[in-house]
Amino acid sequence: MAHEADHTADHHHDDHHDHHEPGFIMKYFFPLDHKVIAMQYLFTGMAMALIGGFFVYAFRMQLAFPGTSVPFYGVVSPTEYNSLVTNHGTIMIFWVAMPVLIAAFGNFCIPLMIGCDDMVFPRINRLSYQIFLLSAIVLIASFFVEGGGFGGAWTAYPPLSARTDYNLTPLGCTLWTVAVGLEFIAFLLGGINFIVTTMNSRAPGMKYTDIPMVVW
């Protein structure tokens, strides 16, 4: 009986150890939970929306009152105007619309809508957000290098993007390119996770035709 009691106590101790709650830092800054990662994408996208909104405020004020000092910014030079327009479009597409509408809602809703506990690759899911956050930091950093950020339009189509007077500096253009590349890598990892989770972790009995249209 004593041996069984000790075995039971050890079993309960192991269960307690296995279900140990992560600390605040691990839970909210390095999470594996798809819902928390979804919130990270959402809040980062909202923060980038504020930055993109400030950019549009600055260049619209320049259009309304040419040559005057814009409150909280200063005088917008021609090169700065191109940079503001370019990075406003870049941010609103790649760092607001995509993370909020695809990554945030996808991470939150897909596991719930197909009946699974989490994404198939939670660590890749976490890595995807971390790369996305790094890409946002690199993009914002491009404004603080000598000459400013990239100004060749958010689509980066030549001949406009190939002109040195729109590129401003090679470093600003390079950082913009690196930021977009990192963002694409982040969403590639996230997309793979979405597809594999939907294909392999559906609830028992759920056919492809039963998958909600939102997931498709």
Automatic annotation (TrEMBL):
UniProt entry tagged with the keyword ATP-binding: no
Keywords: Membrane, Transmembrane, Transmembrane helix
One term of GO molecular function: heme binding
Keyword Transport appears in the UniProt entry: no
InterPro entries, per the entry: Cyt_c_oxase-like_su1_dom (IPR023616), Cyt_c_oxase-like_su1_sf (IPR036927), Cyt_C_Oxase_1 (IPR000883)
PROSITE patterns recorded: COX1 (PS50855)
GO cellular component, one term: membrane
Protein name, per record: Cytochrome oxidase subunit I profile domain-containing protein
Lineage: unclassified sequences, metagenomes, ecological metagenomes
